[in-house]
Amino acid sequence: MALPLYLVGLSHKTAPVEVRERAALDPAVALPAALSTLGRAVVLSTCNRTEIYGVGSPKEAKALLLARGVEAHHLYQKEGIEVLRHLFRVAAGLDSLVMGEAQILGQVREALFLARKYGATESLLEKAFQSAIALGKRARSETGIGAGAVSVAYAALDLALAVYGDLTGLAVAVLGAGEMAELFLTHLKAHGVGRVLVVNRTVDKARVLAERFAGEAYGLEALPQVLRQADLVVASAASPHYLVHPEDLPRRSKPLFLIDIALPRNIDPRVGRLPQAYLYNLDDLRRVVEKNLKARQGEVPKVEALIEGAIGDYLEWYAGHRVREAIRALKGLAYKEVVREYPEADPLTWHKEAGRRAHPWILAVKARTKDFLQGPPCPGECPLLAFRPPRL
Amino acid sequence: MTAVSLLALVGVLLLAVGLFWPRGLFLGAFLYLGAALADAFAKGFFSGPAQPALVLGGLLALRGESLLLRPRLTPLRRYLVLLAMLLGLFALKALPHPGGSLPLLLTLVHAGAFLVAYLALAVGVGAGVMCAMQDLRLRSVPEKALLSAPLWSLRRLEQGYLRVGYLAATLGLTSGMAWAWGYFGSPLALDPKEISVLLGWLGLTLYFLLEERLQGYPRMALLLLAYALLLFAFIGAPFLGSRHPSGLGF
User: Fold this and answer.
1) Which strand (E) or helix (H) includes residue A172?
2) Could you tell me if A218 lies within 8 Å of chain B, comparing CB atoms?
3) For chain A, how far is it from start to end, CA to CA, in angstroms?
4) Which of B130, B146, B147 should be substituted to probe chain A, the one whose Cβ sees the most A Cβ atoms within 10 Å?
5) Contact predicate B62/B29, CB 8 Å
6) Cα B186 from Cα B180, distance rounded (Å)
7) Which of A162, A275, A291 sits opposite B150 (nearest CB)?
8) Is A275's CB within 8 Å of B145's CB?
9) Which residue of A lies nearest to B214 if distances are taken between CA atoms?
């Protein structure tokens, strides 16, 4: 007997963003409605994919996605073991836009929780998703599929850690007050940097950003003074010429880490030749990202092996599950037949009978203890200890 | 083979095993120190170069063992263990040398200072070379720098140990020259040990003077040259014959 699982969905590999937008199911409104329509199903809806995993026939799931304006050629459909393989690949990050990214694991978990909340899971789906979540964790801890930075901001952070080891208490200067500056500051602050010095042509804009990170705001005229205090410099200001020159940097014994992500660049490349200065631009960061992605690609066979192992485990469980279900059905049938023939053999009847026989005993105990519980403490031997229940 | 030599030999073997089995480092270090103690009771304290070599080797192995929980410093740990093994082999060669007891003050000040100097310089130079390599990686192939020990951690390790090593070497050198002046009538002679120590010390002095200007390969080369000269003075020069009591007279 084949595994009765199905999958219908679309992802960044089969559909452009405008189609994915239409297919996405809002977790507050559209998703509960979809789950109540589909019955036994789990819906994984992220910015890169909308997938419906279910048990039984995929017709309704397919109709649901087509009704949202998705064309049939954008959809893929899988059944049986292929559903498991796909789900495990998704949870391990092999099917993600950025291979090995960790966010998808949380999204798979969230999809399972939502399905549970609306009572849409059943044992096959529950087990499949739990196995997928466990596999996703194993893949990230036992292989290098999630290792290394794959975004420019994280690559910069990794380089800063390669220089300093620990960023706690270091002073960071940010040139510019745009989105990139904010993104870098968020990451750096999460790693414990101490002082935040924001330098911008417009001091008011610098102040807004500085206040968010409990930092200090300066105008461009204060740049040399700020550079003297900084251990890390992130340059992202819109400027047609260099803002930082080698002459602006004092001789120092501690390293100075500089990231120039502005275009045109903010920092004169000659700064990188100073003895204690480590200067990186966007190309350097992209090189780090590419190398990490290549390294992740090399880990795919290891993850595939884990996936095949997890599929084997699931099928072992499924074989036992089928036997258990058959035994349960047989027991149910036998019970019905027995009760039909001998109504007094029904356990429910036993429970009623036991309650009926215990009732006078409970009443006797209540009557005997009523005075005692309401009155003062007994002076001599406790009457409760002498109490013997009536023989039933 | 004497019992002391046997202890030292087993120590060397345990250190070799310790490269793969961490407990071996601990056991090997204790055998080294035990062998040095046994030899000291038999011949007198620091009577020849074997004892300081065993003590230094044991302490280096223990320092290597203490780095087990810092995987990014594995190259430094391996280098310290290999150096300890080299010192053990040198001690095996020097142990049969009869030796003789030295004045207590000289033993404490001169030999003690050099023991501290060699210990600190071994760690400092190892960290310094790793630091220079990390500096080169960060400048030319930053993607390869991500898995190595952080530059600033290495630099702090290097600076601390090298400073202590340099001060101790200076004390050892000046006390040795003072003793040679009193004993032989001249503080310095054309002796391979004395010349190599002096050149090594000058190399270290130059390194500290140019510390902020030197980067990359020149920095690494100067540090290694100075250290190689000092190491040669300890385990190479005794074989060439020397007026120093550690001369093995081969």
Assistant:
1) strand A172-175
2) no
3) 54
4) B146
5) yes
6) 6
7) A162
8) no
9) A275
Alpha carbons within 13 angstroms on the beta-carbon side of residue B17 total 13
Q: What are the φ and ψ backbone dihedral angles of A174, each rounded to 5 degrees?
A: -120, 125
Radius of gyration (C-alpha) of chain B in whole angstroms: 18
Cβ contact A288–B143 (<8 Å): yes
**CA A347 → CA A325, A329, A339, A353, A359, distances in Å?**
22, 18, 9, 10, 19
Query: Count of CB atoms within 10 A of residue A290's CB?
Result: 13
- Given a contact cutoff of 8 angstroms between Cβ atoms, the answer to whether B95 and B54 are in contact is no
Q: Which of A371, A370, A369, A362 is nearest to A390 (CA)?
A: A362
Per the CB < 8 Å rule, is B153 touching A161?
Answer: no
Whether the model pTM is above 0.90: no
Query: Contact B139/A161, CB-based, under 8 Å?
Result: no
Burial class (CB in 10 A: 0-12, 13-18, 19+), A139: buried
Contact across the interface for A163 and B151, Cβ inside 8 Å = yes
Burial B92-104 (b: 16+ CB within 10 A, else e): bbbbebebeebee
Q: What is the predicted ipTM? A: 0.82
Q: Given strand A196-199, what is the order of strands in its sheet?
A: A216-218, A196-199, A172-175, A232-235, A256-260, A277-281
- Which of B73, B136, B143 should we substitute to test contact with A (largest number of A Cβ atoms within 10 Å)? B143
Cα distance between residue B225 and residue B238, in whole Å: 19
- A24 annotated binding-site participant: no
- Is the CB of A288 less than 8 angstroms away from the CB of B212? no
With CA atoms as reference, report the closest residue to B234 among B187, B184, B165, B181.
B165
- What is the residue-level pLDDT of chain A in tens, covering all 392 positions? 588 999 999 999 999 888 888 888 888 788 888 888 888 899 999 888 999 999 988 999 999 999 988 999 999 999 999 999 999 999 999 998 888 888 899 999 999 999 999 888 889 999 999 999 999 999 999 999 988 877 888 888 889 999 998 999 999 999 998 888 888 899 898 898 999 999 999 999 999 999 999 999 999 999 999 999 999 999 998 888 899 999 888 888 889 999 998 888 899 999 998 888 999 998 888 888 888 888 899 999 999 999 999 999 999 999 888 888 888 888 888 888 887 887 777 777 777 777 888 888 888 888 777 766 666 666 666 655 566 655 54
Q: Considering only CB atoms, which chain B residues are within 8 Å of A163?
A: 138, 150-152
The residue assigned the tokens 């009523």 is: A370
* Residue A96 among known ligand-binding residues: yes
- Round to whole Å and give the CA distance between A264 and A285: 16
| Interface subset of A 273-292, CB within 8 angstroms of B | 275, 278, 280, 284, 287-288, 291-292
The amino acid that residue A4 corresponds to is: P
Q: Which helix H or strand E contains B76, and what residues bound it?
A: helix B74-94
Contact B234/B118 with Cβ under 8 angstroms?
yes
Nearest CA distance, B127 vs chain A (angstrom): 14
Chain B CB contacts of A255 under 8 Å are: 151-152, 155
A378 as an active site residue: the answer is: no
- CB pairs below 8 Å between A and B: how many? 51
Nearest to B142 among A164, A275, A280 (CB): A280
- Rounded Cα–Cα distance for residues A147 and A300 (Å): 12
Annotated catalytic residue within A33, A47, A190, A364: A47
Residue with tokens 């009443």: A363
Distance between CA atoms of residues B133 and B172, nearest Å: 30
